[in-house]
What does this fold into?
Amino acid sequence: MNDQASPSKLFFASDYMEGAHPLILQRLTETNLVHSAGYGTDEFSESARAKIRKACNAPDADIHFLVGGTQANATVIKSILRPYQGVIAAETGHVSTHEAGAIEAGGHKVITLPHRNGKLNADSIERCIQGYWDDANHEHMVMPGLVYISQPTEFGTLYSLEELTKISEICHRCNVPLYVDGARLAYALACPKNDVTLPDLARLCDAFYIGGTKCGALFGEAVVLPRHDFIPHFFTLIKQNGALLAKGRIAGIQFETLFTEVSAGSGKVSAEGVSAAVSSGETSSDETCLLYEMVGQNAIAAADRIRAALVQKGYEISFECPTNQLFITVDDTQKERLEALLELSFWEKRPDGRTVLRICTSWATDQRDVDRLIEIL
Amino acid sequence: MNDQASPSKLFFASDYMEGAHPLILQRLTETNLVHSAGYGTDEFSESARAKIRKACNAPDADIHFLVGGTQANATVIKSILRPYQGVIAAETGHVSTHEAGAIEAGGHKVITLPHRNGKLNADSIERCIQGYWDDANHEHMVMPGLVYISQPTEFGTLYSLEELTKISEICHRCNVPLYVDGARLAYALACPKNDVTLPDLARLCDAFYIGGTKCGALFGEAVVLPRHDFIPHFFTLIKQNGALLAKGRIAGIQFETLFTEVSAGSGKVSAEGVSAAVSSGETSSDETCLLYEMVGQNAIAAADRIRAALVQKGYEISFECPTNQLFITVDDTQKERLEALLELSFWEKRPDGRTVLRICTSWATDQRDVDRLIEIL
Amino acid sequence: MNDQASPSKLFFASDYMEGAHPLILQRLTETNLVHSAGYGTDEFSESARAKIRKACNAPDADIHFLVGGTQANATVIKSILRPYQGVIAAETGHVSTHEAGAIEAGGHKVITLPHRNGKLNADSIERCIQGYWDDANHEHMVMPGLVYISQPTEFGTLYSLEELTKISEICHRCNVPLYVDGARLAYALACPKNDVTLPDLARLCDAFYIGGTKCGALFGEAVVLPRHDFIPHFFTLIKQNGALLAKGRIAGIQFETLFTEVSAGSGKVSAEGVSAAVSSGETSSDETCLLYEMVGQNAIAAADRIRAALVQKGYEISFECPTNQLFITVDDTQKERLEALLELSFWEKRPDGRTVLRICTSWATDQRDVDRLIEIL
Amino acid sequence: MNDQASPSKLFFASDYMEGAHPLILQRLTETNLVHSAGYGTDEFSESARAKIRKACNAPDADIHFLVGGTQANATVIKSILRPYQGVIAAETGHVSTHEAGAIEAGGHKVITLPHRNGKLNADSIERCIQGYWDDANHEHMVMPGLVYISQPTEFGTLYSLEELTKISEICHRCNVPLYVDGARLAYALACPKNDVTLPDLARLCDAFYIGGTKCGALFGEAVVLPRHDFIPHFFTLIKQNGALLAKGRIAGIQFETLFTEVSAGSGKVSAEGVSAAVSSGETSSDETCLLYEMVGQNAIAAADRIRAALVQKGYEISFECPTNQLFITVDDTQKERLEALLELSFWEKRPDGRTVLRICTSWATDQRDVDRLIEIL
It folds into this structure.
């Protein structure tokens, strides 16, 4: 089945190297000839919204399905900010570095703050906002109008519920909304060290998105606005930003599938069971979880095994990361050897000449590949 | 299979009411677990590009796969224009009316000209450009920097090769590039009255896109820039506009499939044959066409039958349209009767109180539904 | 004193060909070494604001001094509109034609409506707004978010109080603000046919500007927002748009002078008297008017004399215009003769080959030049 | 004459607290009724351009007169950059901090680098540009497209000719243009420690502006583009950015006056002499300098005297600054005492609780006020 890929190399470079979870393709296939309305007003999208509202315990949430992460960030941020405002982000935030200037192209400054393993500190957020208002010249400056954080961060680290609560309190005390980029949210939700749930996000944030592209979908990000009409005319803004799918159902069907309950614990998804469950809204198993959570669990299980092997074999872990990304610092000899056998991600060159490499697992990681990887390590 | 749709209503409202051509889903499924690079640098996208270059007889063309039509238009237009320039379009052009101001949000004026059944006239384009340069105050005005037309137009009409050649000559004489929106290009290519081929478009235009969303794909538009590097750093501009897919392969696989040769004439696509053909690049049949053309043929055949029935039954055709859209002018009684049985598109209210309705066929139109529609008419 | 200008030609090309009303220069000179705060927070600007509020009978108005007309229009319009909105304007409106795409560069569509001698019709405004909301697809379109008109219009015509009241009522019923471009407002206020006063503008509009550049100032436009905080953080928006003067006093002093009461009727301004009046806020004369009104009166008196001469000598008046602009339709022979002796403005070429020329008077028009012009005519 | 200012307080808060150099007002007055063309095409502006070209030894330079600093920066930067590019600046650069996000509002990221007393280091510029191109993911990032520095910097410090030459070499080797903000350029040119001349700037930079607003003009900044047509259609871009003066002559006359040769050394400008010189282009004195240089000399002389007094009296100089700005670090007692008697600028709060205050001199600083200031110190 995997005949076109190099058979000798193992792929741990990223979590968007394959298609979609098989259940998604199956569901797309079985609904293919159903007629439905365009632009996300179809029944599949409505059903997906209902499931996400339920999972988030946010009955009034507005939910929109966009295509990709940069697009979701740019559209949401631009739509929340007024022209005189900017968005606070970690200097390592995706919007600060890897979106080709999309936020600035939308007219807004990214106000960067120092990070610690990709995370912002609540106090530094407060100092930044307070500093603006305390500055006698603040009317000549960019007003902080939104706080952007990622869960997990670009370094794979997690905000604890306590940290997120504190950031949320500061934001709301300062009248600045909080937005969370959940491009890899499945891998946070599935992580045993994580204590932030979807209902927590809906309660503490003004906007967040549940990532699909990196979490088992062909594409798609579900933007959740817990308070109805928080962004007026957001539909039109989505359209204007080129982020509206004519066949909105294609995103809707994927999230409907991802937010269906499946049998957990079995370690294996039963396609037939899920498909029936998506349609009926029920599942026969006693122990269930959302497919979105199961997608994360596979990656986390693989990452945990790899992490243990790395420690055991004496690799230098660059920084602690409990989710599906692992970072190791290697010298040139190690680097060459690993890169001959593995597809990894280059992360950065250290001042001492050594290199940080990223190992990334996903919903699609095969445990046999993990075995082989551990052998190589 | 169609269990969720109302069984009593026929759907002729638009060409994006279903999923994708079955061969596309099949191909997505069979390639699903292949590992590949991100952002459109994968082998599937490369193969799709090669096939499109061949079909367009444009060996040096840059080809990028974007997600949707408004996005493709906004990204291409913004990327070609300099800040002091605007884009000429028909006042009925998609960019003029139905893109929620995306072109203006990108900083550019849409310079609208009168249309005739959705088409621009070469002379009026020349007068507009020449008028700008002749105006003593032109430095205070927006410079025409691009011409935008649609093939087929928003009214389903077609530019002839002679018309397109004349527009192209004027554009190039005036040093203004020409861009063609091909959201429904399959329905032009399949139309017997059409004499503009893909190589003609590649020869006469500076940029165009081959529509996927309305022509059998889940989503996706292939932007073709016949001259290499016509838009420098277009990759980054696509990213900045939120139009870059992390899993670029999902678009690539779809276009690779659409640009595969399939047996023509059989009136039926053989899934197995196509799938083998996509992989091998060959087809065993003597009579072949691209799947993209076949997708159009089904719609045109259906539209032709409906058109003949409309004429025969004395319906007032609002304006001549040879492709997959038909427009009829009806009074309120007719309107009510039709809308009870059919899903059609409201087009406009005429000053005399009557209504123009649109009947739209697609790659997915079932000829049995056409039979029933003709009966109802 | 006028040694550098061609002595043989008369200048009636525009109303911005000279410096400033002498009293303005005098006032700038006498206040030159006073220290004051920057960015318009100085005492001169405060005094100017107080005088304008009084003249407009708008005690709560926010008033900001910007530099030029295009800048004022772009800054105000951009600041009022949300990203999904556009501004309604006559197709001949300054924002539609002669601002080099500044409104679109700010991200917004100019929704153009047909005009009659430069004026919009209240009903067509209503149809446009209502048409948007009635359209089933309006979420895919640009929402009318502001109405822009000019008083006097670009054709020198005037909205009557009745017309303006009707437009204002429609705007407010539709929840769309009304903005008036008063680049040449002095010439409206001084016109006997005008019945729209400054308090009327402040009562009926949500924003307007009192033009300085074309009405006797070196530069400067006073943006009046009758309701306090109608545009939140407008100061920062002005700065961001490059429209904030570090030496804001230079604009403030000019408007303070223009809104000082001077002796009317004398046909001549007494520099000493005005200067004292600006400082003390009082004038000794019984019959007074604002210097801003007097500036207009000189132009209107000159235009009236020229108009009468044109009619008497059988020139074809292109269209009725009661203010400081006169439009005549001439054939090529007339055109050549006039242009040899006069600096006029080319307006447009008529389809019949004749030309419309504009004769423009101003605060600076010398009545002896009017004598000579009438002789030439 | 100075009756409206508080007699008991001395003003050293900034260099834009007064009107204009008296010769400018005189020249505006004597040319006031001359007719001239609009939008900077007048004879005064042409003459000013010729004088600036000569002073810069840049015979092909394009020169445009804009209104203010933020406006000049935003318009130039936006016009040079392509959408995928950003501008490198010190984190303390005016564009980074005090322009209310104008650069980002124009669609571009300000790529900030660390500073040393307001200055960028050539090597860190090179690392930034090189780092972009070396990054495997650079197509997802903002390309450095321009380098912005200020001379003098926002801290009043100066780039030496050697430093500027090195930065220029790096920029041109990397194919990135160099832009210099000369808001306070007169104070650099007049500084004995400065070795960068106007011809040096024209030779080493791709664009710079000669500041008027803070250097003796009512307003105005002369943008110099040493190579003709470096920014195509810049006139239209200026208009679009609301930066085009209808009465362009008002800026032209000011720069024509500032770039007139006046008797140097006399310590006093003879108004009559200058005025004749502006008109005739000649001056009778043997020892001459440009009025623009003389404007700077007054400020530098005052600053030098104050600096010497500060050192002598044991004040802590916050950092070395050779131009017209002086920074002292004071405790709360000192601060209160000084602020009771002086108008100074608050600069920043130090972590140790002390305050940095700025003392600023200008073209308008009266040496008697310097005497009184030194007494107070």
